[in-house]
Amino acid sequence: MRNFRFIQANQALREMFKTDIIEADILLELGEELMRIDKYDLAETCLRKIVNLAEEGKNIEENMIGDAKVKLGKVFMVQNKTELARQVLEEALGHLEGETEKANVFKMLDGLGIEGNNE
């Protein structure tokens, strides 16, 4: 049953990407859920879409962009794409508003063996 639900969700995601109606908050939530079930390639697709929409000038909250980039960084870490993880996590810092969120990103960067500019 779980596999059937995943197939349905995957089909719905593909259909959504074919339209111009894409909700960033739904993509973020879906990306999180896909990460929880170890579907990192699909999670990456959802999270990258949020980043791409922001780059295209769509009206997406700064903190949501930062959150998407943090999650994308986590995906890259799991996929052993250290340089991409570092890049996207550093970019996330420019979008995050909370000091706690930023501190967590610095910890992730430290975990990658990369010194963050924690100012």
Structure, described:
This protein is an all-alpha fold. The chain has helices at residues 2-18, 24-36, 40-55, 62-78, 82-93, 99-111. Helix content is 74%, strand content 0%. The longest helix has 17 residues, at 2-18. The protein has one domain: Tetratricopeptide repeat domain (Serine Threonine Protein Phosphatase 5, Tetratricopeptide repeat), CATH 1.25.40. Helix 2 packs parallel to helix 4 (62-78). The model has no long low-confidence stretch (mean pLDDT 86).
Classify the beta-strand content into a percent band. Answer: under 5%
| Structure annotation, total helices | 6
Low-pLDDT segments = none
Q: Examine the coordinates and then state which fold CATH places here, giving the name of the CATH topology.
A: Serine Threonine Protein Phosphatase 5, Tetratricopeptide repeat
Query: What is the CA-based Rg, rounded?
Result: 15 Å
Looking at this structure, what is the CATH superfamily?
A: Tetratricopeptide repeat domain
Reading off the top of the CATH hierarchy, the class is best stated as Mainly Alpha
Biggest sheet, open or closed, and with what strands and sense? none
CATH architecture: Alpha Horseshoe
